Amino acid sequence: MSRERACSVAELEPDTAKRVVLGGVPIAVVKDSAGAIHAIGDTCTHGDISLSEGFVEDDTLECWAHGSQFSLLSGKPLSLPAYEPVPVFVVEIDGDDVYIDPDVKKDIA
């Protein structure tokens, strides 16, 4: 699969997340407090909860139901009860649009 348009940059407010589904993959597109745009898997690894309904602070996204925080940079959980990471996707900005390839995940060391 190739990259798909996820949303426009204008649809994203700082410290917010937007749920999109691309190629059947739920993704949380997030604009952090510094204005950087990230894309991570939208499902909390602790439970079947949409992370895009959670809280953004700096470069983390917190699950509203369980309180686990995930790094927007690595997808790694930063607090319990989650202990498995969520996938992180490559984001491309083309003009005023945000593109993501749901089949290409960032290689996080």
Automatic annotation (TrEMBL):
InterPro entries: Rieske_2Fe-2S, Rieske_2Fe-2S_sf. Pfam families: Rieske. Keywords: 2Fe-2S, Iron, Iron-sulfur, Metal-binding. It comes from the Bacteria. Gene3D superfamilies: Rieske [2Fe-2S] iron-sulphur domain. Residues 4-100 form the Rieske domain. PROSITE patterns: RIESKE (PS51296). The keyword Membrane does not apply. CDD domains: Rieske_RO_ferredoxin. Transmembrane segments: none annotated. This is Non-heme iron oxygenase ferredoxin subunit.
